[in-house]
Amino acid sequence: MLEITFLIVTALIILLIIHYQSKKVEPFEDFYLQACPSGYSTLFYDENDVASCCDGEVKYSKCFGQRQCKLGEGPENCARLILKDYKEQGSQKCPRGWNYYEDSVTNKKGCTKGVLNDKLSGPRVIDPVLSPTCTIYSDPNDNKNKINSCFNQKQLEDYVCFGRGCKKSLVSLVPDAPPLLKIETLIDNYRNASSGIPTLAPITVYSRKSVLAYFDARNMQIPDPTTNISIDDVAIAYYQNRDITISNSPLFSS
Question: What residue segments make up the domains of the chain, in order of their start?
Answer without folding.
Answer: 28-92, 94-156, 159-239
